[in-house]
Design a protein that fits this description.
Blueprint (H helix, E strand, L loop, with lengths): L1 H19 L5 H14 L1 H20 L4 H22 L3 H19 L12 H15 L9 H8 L6 H13 L7 H22 L5 H16 L10
Helix pairs in contact: 1-5, 1-9, 3-4, 4-5, 4-8, 5-9, 6-8, 6-10, 8-9, 8-10, 9-10
């Protein structure tokens, strides 16, 4: 029964997030995200440095990779949660606090195993594309776009770059990973991919759709339905 409650809670949270995203018109959302990105440019630069440093360390130090990448995911979701609370962005508060909590549980349950030796190439390809895309997100930054995105794109600050980076790391997980973490991250990433394209005109969010859909397909293909609602 415990798993039924967990699935129910995650479903309710997703529903609330979806509702909140339609309480503002696209112009209001765009202005808000542009302002947040402008205000947090220094934090964005710091986050880029931390992200790149921990990514390189995790790739080099195989024995410490799990804890390093888990720490990076906690930093991303924790910082995004703090920014969301500061700017009173309800859907982001729900999303990133849930990311943070589910990552902690996955770490405690030893469900974050980044063993690349057992990954199929498609996981590595999509995973690393998403990781790079999260770092170099070509939206919400000022011109010159291609230069500023290397430093000031809102990674660990707002939705899309943070979500796609999360998806990238989850793609690199050895089976089995945390089904609850993957379900929630993939679902909101897929949703915001469509939301960004259809409501905000952010066509680069096609990467969110691809990565979110990939995680959902991979998750359902390996799901043991007999264990789905097991306590």
């Amino acid at each position: 029964m415990k798993n039924k409650y967990k699935w129910s809670l995650l479903s309710v949270l997703l529903g609330i997030v979806f509702i909140f995203t339609f309480l503002k018109i696209p112009a209001e959302i765009t202005n808000m995200l542009q302002q947040v990105t402008k205000d947090t440019s220094f934090l964005a630069a710091v986050m880029h440095g931390i992200y790149l440093a921990l990514l390189i360390l995790g790739l080099i130090l195989k024995k410490l990779r799990n804890i390093i990448f888990a720490a990076l995911l906690l930093i991303l979701s924790g910082t995004a949660s703090a920014v969301s609370i500061k700017y009173l962005i309800p859907p982001n508060i729900i999303i990133f606090i849930t990311f943070f909590i589910l990552t902690i549980f996955a770490l405690i349950n030893k469900e974050l195993d980044f063993d690349f030796t057992q990954l199929k190439p498609i996981n590595k390809i999509i995973g690393f594309v998403a990781i790079v895309f999260g770092f170099y997100y070509l939206h919400w930054v000022e011109e010159p776009l291609f230069l500023n995105a290397l430093i000031y794109s809102p990674l660990g600050i707002v939705n899309c770059p943070t979500m796609v980076a999360f998806c990238g790391f989850l793609c690199l997980l050895k089976k089995p990973g945390s089904i609850f973490l993957e379900f929630f991250v993939a679902s909101v990433t897929l949703y915001f991919g469509f939301f960004g394209i259809m409501r905000l005109g952010a066509y680069i969010d096609i990467v969110l759709i691809i990565t979110g859909m990939f995680l959902i397909i991979r998750m359902t293909s390996r799901l043991d339905y007999k264990q789905f609602f097991k306590s």
